[in-house]
Design a protein that fits this description.
Number of helices: 10
Oligomer: single chain
Radius of gyration: 21 Å
CATH class of the largest domain: Alpha Beta
Distance between the termini: 17 Å
Number of strands: 17
Helix content: 25-40%
Strand content: 15-25%
Low-confidence stretches: 368-377, 381-392
Strand order of the largest sheet: 16-15-14-13-7-12-11-8-17
């Protein structure tokens, strides 16, 4: 085997720990550099990763020996960091959302196309066995023709547990841009792209109190609406209703339900990779749990990046930038609809990503064959000396 695919991580906040848990020991990638606005934090993380260098953000983006930048900054910085990496000829995998505005997201994809590099974006939770098993059930016709879905996320707000929750309530935050990517991405996988949206939103209070950490008791201003509802009309004709809230306490609703003429599917929380998929068939007497039949088993954050690196001309990345841009436009259009009181037709569409076959953990956590090199045309081989071996 040759060298592993070289990754630089920008942003070392809470979510970075989950990515490091997946990527730090993967044989097909090497975390070559890390950067954070807090230089001491970057140095601490680098010290825990043999062979990893702590750099400034600017130096990491310009480093000639990196192939892909993993962008884990706050949403407001997503577009700036992505454009900086692309400007230096690097691929980008970003935390969600792709950007704070549709125009910024489109600029990122346009720049990547011009530079000949790839862009992919979280969430990758929808590639796990939960959403993928549900999709397989829909595709197999177990509920007949799907005509409607509901997606519900209700929480009292992240300030109860997050030590620095400011960005959740700043422009680019809010329940829709923060949590909506999970639910809308799942709906796109299940039902296809969105054609039009109608939205409504509200704001329960103007500030939040941090509930944990060194800033406990500090008040954070709320600059965005904290409860957003909408109707999504899918290109195939199905209607989805969506609720995302930082104002409620809890809900008894299933995270996602898909209704068809022959049955209803209860889909697990798309914020997680797995979970029970349950089917209630027309004329049946109760719910039936479906065994996992598709998706990356035992997946964790970063599986979308590994999937991205194995994409080629035959199989685009399943968490690709085109999906992220379509999801971003769906969300920003919902917010615009809520503000202006009108139905909005989207300008983007996207093909449903290819389904993920049932893939056991040993296949994606390491190479199937120690003698196997990268497939021709995959992103591991886009630079001289980058010969990592990644499954699937």
């Amino acid at each position: 085997m040759g060298d592993a695919h070289r990754i630089g991580i920008v942003g070392l906040g809470v979510i970075s720990r989950a990515y490091l848990g997946t990527l730090a020991q993967h044989p097909g990638v090497r975390i070559a550099a890390v950067a954070d606005l807090d230089a001491a934090r970057a140095a601490e993380v680098a010290q825990q990763l043999p062979g990893t260098e702590a750099l400034s953000v600017e130096d990491l983006l310009a480093a000639p020996d990196l192939d892909t930048v993993l962008n884990l900054t706050t949403p407001a910085a997503h577009a700036e960091i992505a454009l900086g990496a692309i400007g230096h000829g690097k691929h980008v995998y970003a935390e969600k959302p792709l950007a704070c505005t549709f125009d910024d997201g489109k600029a990122v994809l346009d720049a990547a196309t011009a530079a000949g590099v790839g862009v992919a974006c979280a969430p990758d939770t929808v590639l796990g066995t939960g959403t993928q098993t549900a999709r397989a059930a829909v595709d197999a016709g177990l509920i007949g023709r799907p005509f409607a879905a509901s997606a519900v996320m209700v929480t009292p707000g992240h300030e109860r547990w997050h030590p620095n929750p400011d960005f959740y309530y700043a422009p680019g935050g809010g329940p829709l841009l923060d949590m909506g990517p999970y639910y809308i991405s799942a709906l796109v996988h299940l039902l296809g792209p969105v054609r039009t949206v109608t939205g409504a939103s509200s704001r329960l209070r103007g500030e939040r109190v941090i509930g944990s950490g060194p800033r406990q008791g500090e008040r954070v201003p709320v600059e965005v609406d904290s409860h957003v509802s909408g109707v999504l009309e899918h290109a195939g004709g199905a209607l989805s209703t969506l609720t995302t809230s930082f104002d409620g306490v809890t809900t008894t609703a299933a995270p996602i339900e898909v209704h068809g003429e022959k049955g209803t599917l209860a889909v697990p929380d798309p914020n997680h990779f797995d979970g029970e998929v349950r089917l209630y068939e027309l004329g049946g007497t109760g719910w039936r749990t479906l065994p996992p039949s598709a998706g990356y088993a035992d997946a964790a954050r970063g599986i979308g990046l590994l999937d991205f690196l194995r994409a080629d001309d035959r199989r685009p990345p399943r968490a690709g930038g085109d999906v992220a841009l379509h999801v971003l436009e769906t969300m920003t259009a919902l917010l615009c609809s809520a503000a202006e009181g009108r139905r909005i037709t989207l300008t983007t569409s996207v093909e449903r990503p290819e389904p993920v076959p049932l893939t056991p953990a040993w296949m994606w956590k390491g190479p199937q064959d120690p003698q196997e090199g990268p497939r021709e045309g995959t992103r591991e081989g886009t630079r001289e000396g980058t010969q990592g071996c990644l499954p699937m």
